[in-house]
Every structure is written in structure tokens, then in C-alpha cells.
Protein 1
Amino acid sequence: NTVQRAFTRLVEDGFVDAIARQGTFVSATPPHLSNYALLIYSKRQPGALRNLFWSTLDRVARELSETGTRQVAIRTSIAPEFHSDEYEALLADIRARRLAGLIFCFDPGLAVGTPLLDTADLPAVSLLGSQAAPAMPRVALDGQQFWHLAFKHLAERGRRRIAVIGGPGRHDGIVRHIIDTAGEHSVTIDEAW
């Protein structure tokens, strides 16, 4: 009974696969090597992601999970000071070593002093936020490369006159860079556009 309970637990956690009439085998994709949690800071209960950024992350996470050996689970009610059921389930996964890593979609500084950052050997990366957790790598948009690739793409499709829509508070240096980069690809942007 003890051995059966241990195997049942390993199957439930995803470390082994039980195949009827063949036996029990170590999983080809054990959770500690293939399961990732994409963390979204929120004090609300889980619900639909309501903007394009979060919806895009959700879509890409689902595509990765469907097409590869990695599973990406979006955890939408993660706020260390608000112990939601989803946060507690995340902590249980961390304690049971069922995660290969954490992807922070919020400032990891909000998680300093919690098991989210204090668990040894659990890799983490930040998509947003400050450098409050200095040991954590941060993935950020390379703005200059973005503009080069965008204008190259448009020029290859025969577009020559482009208008750029931006949010308030843009600096003149950024506008000048955008106009100059467009010119390198024979694309025209009038500053008034």
C-alpha cells in the first residue's frame, strides 16, 4: 500500500507515467523540467484577461503548451500579500518541485521575501518591472531593433509613407530616431504625422 500510494502521488504530480499492461515509466516531460508558471499580479479572483497584452501572453502560453514539451500555466491572481487560492496552489507547486521556472509579468520587487524569490534552484525571469530583484534576468524590448525590423517589413511590402501613432509624453529624441530609422529603409514619415 505504501509503495502504491507513492507511485500514485508520482503519477498525479507528473513525474511518472503509468501505462496499463506495460508498467510505470519515468515521464519524458517531468514537471520540474517542463512546467512553467507565468505570473500576473492581481488581488482579484481569476478571470478573463481583458487587454491585448495579457490576451497575447495567454495565447502564446497555450500555443507553447499544445505544441511542445513545455507547459506554461498562467497564474492570474498572484499577489504575495493576498493569499488567493491560486497563489496558495502556486506555493504548493513550488514546495513539491513541480515547476521548472517562474515568468514574472509584474515587478519582482513585490515578491521579495516570499517563496517566489527565496526558493533555491527555481529559475525566474521578469518581463516587466524594475531591477528590485537584481539576481533575476529581465527580458525587455529592444526599441531600436524593433523600429528597424518594423520599417524593413513595411518597405519590403511596398509601403513608403507611414504614420506612427504613439502615446503622450514621447520625447523628441525618440521621434527623431523613428524618422531617421524610417529614412534608412526609404520610408517617409512626416513629423506632423
Protein 2
Amino acid sequence: MNYDEFPDLRVLLAFSAVAEHRSLTLAASVLGEAQSSLSRRISSLETTLGGRLFHRTGRGVMLTELGERLEPRIQAILSDVTALTEDARSELDNPRGEVELGVVPGMSKPLVSKFCAQLRRDYPRIRLKVVEAYSGEIEKWLASGRIQIGIFNRYGSGKVRGAELLMQSELVLVLPRGVYHLALGDVTLSVLSELPLALPTRPNGLVSRVSDLAARQGIALKIGFEGGNGALVRDAVEHAELCTLVPMHLAEKDYSDAAFEMRRLVKPTIRQHTWLAVGSHRPADAATRITASVLRMMAKAK
């Protein structure tokens, strides 16, 4: 069959309305169109199917034998289209699927737990899988398609293509309280030559940025410990008399108790920029788009 000749849904709806109301005038009124236009649709369908579908009578119209045979099949087609439309709208309003999110440690708590609770409440058919890693790994996963959404950090001032800036935070120096007697107030990068540091495991964007700036100023960093996660670095600062560099928002969350003190780092000020990106390895489905939208709103409100 040549599908170009197949009647469109408006023609089938016209047939259905006339068959139901047994009147061209009433069917045209229900459909909100002129009777002449409706008559042309019916004539077009009869031409396509090769036979008369209605008998014209003084009281209106009646189905022919062909019309009676076709009516249940046309109604089934319209019912299927209605169901398909409702299913599609349901998928958009309440999509289903698994979404894998990669997030840097500094953004994982309490954002992920709160986000997961909201997603379960508003979109219960989305299954969320969260993996935590440093930024370089997350960007690799985004590029390879392993994860659909990534939250990662950069330390330069330029924009990241295909990503949206969620927040930015200045780096601060965190010290074990009472061990290193630095003057109160801001400190410059040069002070790092005097302090043993606990930093994230390399390769790491923060470590690379600080190392590059220190090298330009002829400052030799004393990295005494590298930790694979924030908890290890924190323990090293608290128990091994090491210092660390973290963004202000993380310092206020993880280093706010009496065991630590902090100094703002200046000359230069180093800012961490946190970005959200949806992977471009394949087109984002409805579940991924919804997840990214909710996550974006929550992260900005954080």
C-alpha cells in the first residue's frame, strides 16, 4: 500500500463523529468546523477506501455495509492513538529510567541525599545511580557515556562548553588548631612553602592549579600526604599535623569544629568553579532531562 494515500487522523475523526451522531450538521458542530469541510473529508476517505461509507437520508446519514465493517477498526485506531498520546505525555510528566550521576565529593553531601529524596517523591519511576569521584574522572565518564550527568570542578576562569556554572568558591588554607602560629587574617601563596600539605590524589584540578601558580612564583610545595577522598585528607589534617586547601563552602561544612582554623588565601585568590553537564555521547532522554533540571534547581538553591 502507498502510505502517502492513507487518511490522516482528522479524516478518521470526521468519520467517527459522523458515525456516532448520524448527522453531518451535528458532527460538524461537535468538531467545530464547517459542514462543507467535513463533507470533503468523508468524500476523501470514501475515495481512498473505494466505497461509500454513509447513506444520505432525510433524517441524516446511516452507515453503509462497508462503513459498519470499518467502524470498529477505525475506532480501534483512534483509541490506540489516544493511548499512545497519553502514554507519551505520562513519560514526559513522570518519566521512567535509570540515570547515572557522577559527582565530586564536595557536592555529594548533603546535596545528593536531599536530591534523591525529592526525586523519589516527585518522579518515583526514575532510578538514580550515584558515583563519587574527583573531577578528572567524572569528565572522562561524561565523554565516554558511562554517566549521563556530571558535576565537576574547574579552577580556571573560562567557560566550559556544554556545561552550566552552579557555584564558585574561594580556596582557603585549613590548619590544625594551635600547631602553626600564623598571623590572623589572609595569607598569600608563599606561606605554603613553610607548611606540610595533605591534598587530593593526583591528577587533580585543585592540585594542578596550586602547583602551577606556586611554580610561577618559585614556591616549592611540601606535599606530605595525598588522599583518595575528602575524609582521608581531613583525618590527616586533624591527626598528622598537616594542612590542606579546600573551597570555602567545603571548609565551612567539614572543618568548622574547634580542631581546625582557616585562613583565606590571597595573592592570588584561587576560585573553584563547579559545573553541571549532561553527557553528549547520546541524546538525553526524558528521565535524564528531568533529573538534570531538578538537580540544577537544588544545587543553585543550596
Protein 3
Amino acid sequence: LETEEAHDRAAATYPVVPFGAFGTIIARDAILSAVDAGALLIDARAPERFEGTSEPMDPRAGHIPGARNLPFAGNVISDAAGISRFLSPETLRERFVRAGVTSESPVILSCGSGVTACHNALAMHLAGFEAPAIYVGSWSDWSSQPHLPIETGPSVGPRG
């Protein structure tokens, strides 16, 4: 709370710098057919949410069938002061390769609600991979549809 006259702190103008094409959005009804056709589905949530042992906010616990778990938190390292920074591009690339990402593989990213999937998308960009597709609704959308299948348990493939 301030007692002085308010100042417009948003008065500065910030230039918009184009970042280039940063991927596409994929719809819920296209996920399973894309995975069946060879797309790699990567879920950025913490392992306990992915595996279905803990679900603090969504209607069902688990993950989309065929998904691999690559928690976004593994993209960064914290220094002694607690400041987090992305890993080096080389280390990020190794992490995604261990998860099954190749230059030829189409990748779909998901998470709880689409936010941390974007963290993985940025990490993929820094690692030199092509822009992935993002399932914006992610687990919150998927788990709210009782007719859609779910899986529980560990990742179907290697973890990064």
C-alpha cells in the first residue's frame, strides 16, 4: 500500500523482437492418432503427477497413453544464490535425446495446463531442435474427459 500519488510504471515501451515460428498447437482429438503415427508425446509434469501417485488439482491421475515423462524442472540448474538458469544447449540436447527426441521425430509437448510444456519447448529451441507441437489443454483438459483413456505408472520410454 502506498500513500503517494500513483505513477504509471508501464509507460516505457519495449520493442517486440520476433522469435520465429515456435511450433504449432495440437487439438485433443489429434493426440492419440499422432502418437500412433510415431509422434513422441512428452509430459513436463513432475513424476508423481505423471505416474498418478499424486494429483493435487485435476479430476483424474495419470498421463495420456504413450506419453514419456520429462519434467521441465530438469532443464535448469540453480547456483549457490538460488538463481536458476537453463542448462547449456549441449546438455539440454543430450537430455532430450535420452528422452527419445531426434531431428526426424515429430514431438508433442504437454503438462498440466500448457504452461510448463512451453518451458520444454524453449529448452528444445535452445538445444537446436525443431519447434514442437503443444497440447495447450494438456492434462487438465484430457483428465476432464471421462471417455478418454489414461495410463498410470512410470514413463514408457527413457527419462532425461
Protein 4
Amino acid sequence: MKMKYLKGLVAAGVLATAAFVGQASAGVIGLALVVDGSNSISNSEWSLQMQGYHNAINAAIPTDGSVAISGTKFGRTASVFQSMTVVTGANRGSIADNFQSESRPFIGSSTCISCAIYSAYQNSQIAAFFGGFSYDKLIIDVSTDGQWNRGNDPDGNGIGSANWAVANGVDQVNCLGVGGSADCSFVAGDGAFMVAAADFNAFETALLAKIRRETGQNVPAPAGLALLGLGLAVVAFYRRKKPQQLLINAA
């Protein structure tokens, strides 16, 4: 019986170790944050938005190397201001500061969401190639207070649309809509979702919840911890059994 008992412990340990090794070797969650800077957003609202990103990154992005983030701003056109970077304890603060200090894009009446999706996607691929990391999951996260009027329809199939991004390997294109004029109907991908904020004063709270959901911080414990807990439960079970019961079972 002792041999069976030891074999059970070894098996549980091997399974738990394998699960942890699998987690360690998995790719990162890539979170491409796309920020609306079009003309419908005032300078004070832009500041509130970027302050929200700063605070949410510091509060919700893990520093264990499991998440990479980038920043792309858009108006008439789009540009990447924060290349996709794996977040650690050494760089999270500076990445958050980059969001807070970023200036608005060229102010015009146009809103090119597809430009931003395309730019964010291109950067995600280039950064991963040269950075030597891969994606376990890749998410493009668009924040907007309006709807597109330039480029391709983000709800269509043209270059830069959400469907185009998913067809090219993005897992989800999600959206945070601010105010009653925001159009987030373009979300795409398995499990894609949208979040609404009443205005830019409520933006940070909505963003914080959204990032936590996207990075898997509101899910049950990892499989490795569950297996380890199961192994400990088996140990406790056998320790509680009386010697005569063990002898009967072994007979």
C-alpha cells in the first residue's frame, strides 16, 4: 500500500509540474490598445482617456511577463506610439507613463478605425518577430466615442476591418464605447465583447474591468494549482485513514 501511496504522490507531482511547465512555455497575451483621438474628443477628454490607460496599466497589467501591450492612436490616420512590449516589473511604469504623456494625433474630422486596427496588427507581428516572443492570445482593443467615416468599414471584410484581423490570426477585436454615439458593432472573434462607459469620467473604471477580463484575471485558478491541490487532498485523505483500514485495503 505504501508503494501505491508513493506512486500516487509522484503521479500527482508529475501532472502538476507538467502543467506549470506548459504555462511557462506558453506565449504571452498580446493586448494592442487602440485609442481614439478624433475631433469629437476634446483635449480634456483626451487627457482623461490617457490618464485612464496610465492608471489601468499600472493596476491591472501583470508584471510576470505573461502579457505584452502596445498603444496605437487614430484620427484621420493612425500611428503606433508604444510598440508591443512584454510587461515586467522593470518597465510597466514607463509604459504607463508613455500613454499618459502621449499627445493627440492630427486633429481632423475623420475617424479611421480600420487604419488603427491595421497599424496595431502590423506592429504586433513585427514586435513579436524581433522580440523573440509568441502569442498565446492576441487581442486588439479599440476605444472610441463615435463611428468610422474614413478607411474601410471595421465591421466589413476590407483591410483593417475586425473580420480581416481575425482572419489573419487575431483572436479578438474588442471595443470600449464611450457615450451614446459610440458604435462597437464591429467586434469580432470567438468570445469578443464590448464594454460601455457613459462618458470619459467613467472611462477608467470601464477600461480597468475590460483589461482584467481580457488578461484572464477573473477566471478560476490555473490547472497546475488545481492539480497540486488535488494531490494535497489525496495526501490528507490517506493520513486520516486508520492503520487497520490501510491493511484491509492492501489485503
